[in-house]
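Quick one, tokens below:
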């Protein structure tokens, strides 16, 4: 027996040491053919495994066998298993992974992979179930560090002391524009981004690379996805609805979404009793066609039609303090009728010139037709007393009485045409990226607006002789400038004994024919992953970032014979921001093996050649001249991960201080939010996952406010702190694993059906976004708060098929 065992071992030794090896190699991508890094590629039943590199490539050496199982897995994507039979030689195997279809799936944490860039992925899947009036991605961003949003009616957001205009947004590599005339969040339509069509979301609050455009604050980079063979979704609720359908047939794929927003019931929770007639409709499509294994063509289109009709009746606002309560009452006459129609589309052709060289061409167009018309007269009384609201002399003292009349006939037409050529090349450990764009702009603007104020029978400003209007503005301008821009950047990885270094450095240049200015923007980031602490990553980013003027920044108001005229300042220069960002990420695994990540950034932004501005609701009014300098500094911290398995949540905290010097007056920037605490939490009942909950809460410092037609250098005060909590529940009525689904041909059509109940502003907190200003005969102005929306219920039905 011993001799038999000995000879068996002798015979097996050659087969062990000289067994034939084969190589399984290929590329792992998502459905949009973007490379996936850190995907685990393993041989089933063994410990043999490798990770894909940043280009999604892998090589796995295995021994020949009759049957081999190869498994591809990464958190956030569906696992794939392939069985290879009779493998005798090397195999090329390219794989595309699909995002998980979990209702509250997580794509923020990716296989505990260290973040070595300053642009991070966002858990966009959470938007489908979050408790948010508009089901928008931007409201999710507002819970992240450094991002501020204090108006739930608007999708606009500010980042680290910048304003709404300083954030650049891309969809499929094309810059997105928004209407310029919108002055109130009530007029805003849907967020430009359709969450149902999103495949990938990346966001950076500063220090981003040269491939992104000339904005001073942040970049939001969104890619729409390629769908399954057939899928769709329908959602209906008290605040609107949406429908989405996607399909893939052979070489062709398409995703198309239509949305409608209804705001009547939400606006009814404000102080103004009025007849609201809003109509917000949006339609988008994204189509791709594979011309060959190396070349692909895509077409993206968007149509947005926003109409807002408003007929106010009365308003009653109670404000002040316990010692000095006040009541503001208004009776209205008049109307407002606004229309904002935008079109945007892009055609892209891209492909491989060789194995390591890619090239692409994009032609895009944007067009908007904007009209703002209103004639509203208000007769008001301002009382001070016991705050009973009766408005009678017995209980209140009248401290102001008067009339105001607001009139506008404004229109703006804008067209932007862009042609871009871009590409990348892999040269050893270098990844080079480059691009060049030519842009033609055509903007025609006509403004005719005025405001009359009368206090106790005196028109303001009162001279005792003349009858004057309080303010007026006229504009009739047209420009057709061109803009040429380009960038070149390199990413280089190098290993050392102490750890891995990743360097991304590049430069961006741009020329604008209107002011004949050329700007050069060097940018870079150095990331480090220590060899001994691979769950820790450090990064240092910086560069020069410009805010290239588009249209609003160089509108300068001049007074001609008592009339305010908008002239265009051809001597305007790009605003400048020098970024310095130090960041760190550390991955934590708790006792139950749930992944967490603690992320933090300290930043400093030196600002120069600023154009001072004021913010009223969502309307930004620039001074039209580079007369200010300043800075913004702060720290952002975020802890996020799976507090419970399979569900992402996070909490963030931010501290910030800003200052600008306007001709010797040192004042904060208009978006100076000293602190913010935000929470986004998702949960389900243990053992009963059909019932799920999402909680979104924000507590942030008030923003500076100045009187109208005056800058912050003339004096300012702060709004009260913004506090809001939204709560949502979702009940799964039908799922793929429900037995009843297989008993009905109708129910088989649907993958999931959810019933949602949302409670917006659950504690009915009175938040203030803007103020209405009352002027008395002496010229003193009284600030009356305009409260935002109150508590509101919403019911939604979502069906996926």
């Amino acid at each position: 027996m011993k001799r038999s065992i000995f000879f068996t071992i002798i015979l097996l030794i050659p087969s062990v040491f000289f067994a034939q090896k084969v190589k399984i190699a290929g590329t792992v991508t998502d459905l949009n053919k973007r490379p996936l890094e850190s995907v685990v590629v393993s041989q089933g039943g063994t410990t043999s495994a490798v990770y894909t590199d940043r280009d999604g490539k892998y090589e796995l050496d295995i021994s020949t066998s009759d049957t081999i199982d190869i498994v591809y897995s990464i958190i956030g994507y569906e696992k794939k298993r392939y069985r290879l039979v009779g493998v005798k030689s090397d195999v090329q195997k390219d794989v595309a992974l699909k995002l998980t279809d979990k209702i509250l799936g997580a794509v923020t944490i990716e296989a505990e992979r260290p973040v070595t860039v300053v642009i991070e992925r966002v858990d966009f899947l959470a938007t489908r179930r979050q408790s948010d009036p508009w089901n928008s991605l931007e409201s999710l961003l507002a819970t992240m560090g450094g991002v501020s949003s204090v108006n739930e009616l608007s999708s606009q957001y500010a980042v680290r002391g910048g304003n709404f205009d300083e954030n650049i947004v891309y969809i499929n590599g094309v810059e997105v524009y928004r209407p310029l005339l919108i002055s109130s969040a009530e007029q805003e339509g849907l967020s430009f981004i359709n969450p149902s069509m999103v495949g990938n979301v990346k966001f950076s609050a500063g220090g981003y690379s040269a491939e992104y455009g000339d904005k001073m604050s942040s970049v939001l980079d969104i890619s729409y996805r390629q769908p399954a063979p057939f899928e769709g979704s329908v959602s209906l609720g008290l605040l609107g609805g949406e429908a989405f359908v996607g399909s893939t047939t052979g070489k062709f794929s398409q995703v198309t979404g239509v949305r409608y927003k209804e705001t009547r019931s939400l606006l009814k929770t404000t102080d103004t009793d009025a007849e609201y007639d809003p109509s917000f409709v949006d339609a988008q499509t994204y189509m791709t066609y594979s011309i060959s294994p190396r070349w692909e063509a895509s077409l993206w289109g968007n149509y947005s039609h926003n109409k807002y009709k408003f007929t106010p009746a009365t308003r009653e606002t109670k404000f002040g303090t316990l010692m000095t309560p006040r009541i503001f009452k208004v009776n209205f006459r008049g109307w407002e009728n606004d229309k904002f129609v935008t079109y945007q589309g892009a055609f892209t052709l891209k492909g491989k010139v060789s194995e390591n060289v890619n090239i692409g061409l994009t032609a895009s167009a944007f067009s908007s037709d904007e009209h703002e018309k209103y004639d509203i007269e208000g007769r008001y009384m301002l009382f001070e007393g016991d705050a009973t609201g009766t408005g009678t002399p017995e209980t209140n003292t009248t401290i102001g009485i008067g009339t105001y009349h607001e009139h506008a006939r404004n229109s703006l037409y804008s067209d932007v045409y862009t042609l871009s050529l871009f590409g990348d090349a892999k040269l050893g450990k270098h990844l080079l990226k480059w691009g060049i764009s030519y842009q033609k702009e055509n903007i025609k603007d006509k403004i005719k607006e005025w405001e009359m104020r009368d206090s106790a029978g005196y028109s303001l400003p009162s001279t005792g002789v003349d009858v004057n209007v309080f303010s007026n503005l006229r504009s009739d301008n047209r420009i057709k400038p061109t803009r040429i821009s380009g960038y070149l950047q390199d990413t280089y990885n190098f290993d050392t004994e102490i750890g891995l270094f990743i360097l991304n450095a590049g430069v961006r240049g741009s020329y604008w024919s209107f002011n004949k200015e050329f700007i050069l923007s060097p940018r870079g980031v150095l990331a480090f992953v220590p060899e001994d602490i691979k769950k820790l990553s450090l990064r240092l980013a910086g560069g020069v970032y410009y805010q290239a003027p588009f249209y609003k920044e160089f509108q300068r108001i001049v007074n001609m014979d008592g009339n305010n005229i908008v002239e265009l300042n051809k001597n305007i220069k790009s605003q400048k921001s020098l970024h310095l960002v130090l960041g760190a990420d550390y991955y934590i695994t708790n006792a139950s093996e749930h992944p967490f990540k603690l992320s933090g950034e300290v930043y400093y932004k030196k600002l120069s050649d600023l154009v001072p501005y004021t913010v009223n609701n969502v309307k930004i009014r620039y001074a039209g001249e580079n007369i200010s300098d300043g800075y913004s500094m702060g720290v952002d911290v975020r802890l996020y991960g799976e507090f419970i398995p399979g569900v992402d949540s996070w909490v963030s905290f931010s501290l910030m201080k800003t200052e600008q010097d306007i001709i010797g007056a040192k004042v904060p920037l208009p978006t100076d939010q000293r602190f913010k605490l935000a929470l986004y939490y998702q949960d389900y009942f243990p053992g009963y996952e059909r019932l799920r909950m999402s909680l979104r809460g924000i507590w942030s410092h008030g923003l500076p406010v100045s009187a109208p037609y005056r800058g912050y250098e003339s004096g300012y005060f702060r709004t009260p702190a913004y506090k809001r909590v939204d709560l949502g529940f979702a009940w799964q009525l039908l799922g793929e694993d429900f037995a009843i689904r297989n008993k009905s041909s109708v129910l088989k059509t649907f993958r999931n059906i959810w019933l949602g109940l949302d409670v917006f502003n659950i504690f009915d907190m009175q938040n203030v976004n803007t103020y209405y200003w009352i002027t008395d005969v002496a010229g003193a102005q009284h600030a009356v708060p305009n409260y935002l929306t109150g508590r509101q219920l919403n019911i939604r039905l979502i069906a996926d098929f």
